[in-house]
Amino acid sequence: MGKINLLDRLRLGLAVSVAKSVTFGVRSLRLGAASVLPGSIARKIEPRLLQLLSQQVKRGVILIAGTNGKTTTSLLLSSILERSQFRVAHNSTGANLENGLMTALLATTNLVGNLDVDYAILEVDENVIPKVLTQIQPRIILCLNLFRDQLDRYGEVDTISKRWTKVISTLPLDTVVIPNADDPTLSYLGQQLPQKVLFFGLNEPEQYLGEIPHAVDSIYCPNCGHSLDYEGVYLSHLGDFHCPNCGFSKSKPTFDSREFPQILVGLYNKYNTLAAVTAARELGVDEATILDTINNFQAAFGRAEDLVVNGKRVRILLSKNPVGTNETIRVVTQSTDKTTLLVLNDRTPDGTDVSWIWDVDTEKLVERGGTLVVSGDRVYDMALRLRYSDRSAESSLNLIVEEDLRSAIATALEHTPDDEILHILPTYSAMLEVREVLTGRKIL
């Protein structure tokens, strides 16, 4: 830790002690995982808490930002480093606002606020990156993707990317930035930065989508505004592109995407794999350790997480925005399983504007038939979207509307054959509720 006077040290010690007491109380009473509240209270005692804790990390802080994939990518990278015998602090529950970051660091301190870890891996909400970077000087920043998300809270992706570029460009030149080469906005961002930049991306044309989906956010050149020409798209606006007007094109990835297998199901998890691998390689981790970790990786809660409930397999696929939901639908439609539960909430963690469901390609889910059970706070909005997607005069779709979540889960399980998987597609707060019903444990 840098120089700190006696009064500040006492205040830091008090903040840490109070935070640990709160954590103990919340967990003892089984009120949750205490992943946010301790940091919120401790911050009131010591406003510089995030700065004072992060500067104690021995080998550096790694920030992971983006709309989709933060929790899975950070968990994979954390697992790789821990398998390499490094001590890691990590906000593993996905609490990615400032209070959640502080709580994660507080969890690994002693009673006087000393932090003894090699790395801190912190997934950060894309909208608070500018605030966080005024308090933390990271060793590595991973920029996964930028999609429209929670329209009631965030601006368009161009606004967020400009804010990112402005604040990241002021960081020390030895900061390593790792953007997604397949995202035009982030590819351009990386090309503008003075720091060391490493790109990750796909080189697998056989994975191209047949057409650009409705949920596409950035098909215009970030340099001149002209429409981009795509050789093919992998998901949403991520793909192989160039601008016929100014010459801007996809940045070259640091290594071939075929070198490593992907974690879990879904092409989006290949991006998560590549991002974590690029960072791990930059930190000097050997290839054998990286591969071993990938091959033994277990999903984060709610992210392609597999459970067994009443003897039946259940897979939870977090679906919180158009792009993410299109990708989880792709996973479902590529399987032979015919029962799906969709749970749509509109609470603060989800975003109160649910109009995004009309940008989701639900037609692909409906046209295959089977049983769709819908629930959640906005169950009738989702049911209406699915009904409008049913264009066949001889549809075999069995649409079941159930307001009560427990009843919806029970109904979906009843309709799931023993040899199939029940896929559950919930928004964020709905995912927490679903897991509590299925496992009897709260996450937050």
UniProtKB/TrEMBL annotation:
The keyword Acetylation does not apply. The lipid II isoglutaminyl synthase complex catalyzes the formation of alpha-D-isoglutamine in the cell wall lipid II stem peptide. The MurT subunit catalyzes the ATP-dependent amidation of D-glutamate residue of lipid II, converting it to an isoglutamine residue. Pfam families: Mur_ligase_M, MurT_C. It is an enzyme of class 6 (ligase). GO terms for biological process: cell wall organization; peptidoglycan biosynthetic process; regulation of cell shape. The keyword ATP-binding applies. This is Lipid II isoglutaminyl synthase (glutamine-hydrolyzing) subunit MurT. Forms a heterodimer with GatD. The lineage of its organism: Bacteria, Bacillati, Cyanobacteriota, Cyanophyceae, Nostocales. One of its GO terms (molecular function) is carbon-nitrogen ligase activity on lipid II. The active site is at 353. Its EC number is 6.3.5.13. The gene is murT. It catalyses: beta-D-GlcNAc-(1->4)-Mur2Ac(oyl-L-Ala-gamma-D-Glu-L-Lys-D-Ala-D-Ala)-di-trans,octa-cis-undecaprenyl diphosphate + L-glutamine + ATP + H2O = beta-D-GlcNAc-(1->4)-Mur2Ac(oyl-L-Ala-D-isoglutaminyl-L-Lys-D-Ala-D-Ala)-di-trans,octa-cis-undecaprenyl diphosphate + L-glutamate + ADP + phosphate + H(+); beta-D-GlcNAc-(1->4)-Mur2Ac(oyl-L-Ala-gamma-D-Glu-L-Lys-D-Ala-D-Ala)-di-trans,octa-cis-undecaprenyl diphosphate + ATP = beta-D-GlcNAc-(1->4)-Mur2Ac(oyl-L-Ala-gamma-D-O-P-Glu-L-Lys-D-Ala-D-Ala)-di-trans,octa-cis-undecaprenyl diphosphate + ADP; beta-D-GlcNAc-(1->4)-Mur2Ac(oyl-L-Ala-gamma-D-O-P-Glu-L-Lys-D-Ala-D-Ala)-di-trans,octa-cis-undecaprenyl diphosphate + NH4(+) = beta-D-GlcNAc-(1->4)-Mur2Ac(oyl-L-Ala-D-isoglutaminyl-L-Lys-D-Ala-D-Ala)-di-trans,octa-cis-undecaprenyl diphosphate + phosphate + H(+). InterPro entries: Folylpolyglutamate_synth_CS, Lipid_II_synth_MurT, Mur-like_cat_sf, Mur_ligase_cen, MurT_C. Residues 318-431 form the Lipid II isoglutaminyl synthase (glutamine-hydrolyzing) subunit MurT C-terminal domain. HAMAP family: Lipid_II_synth_MurT.
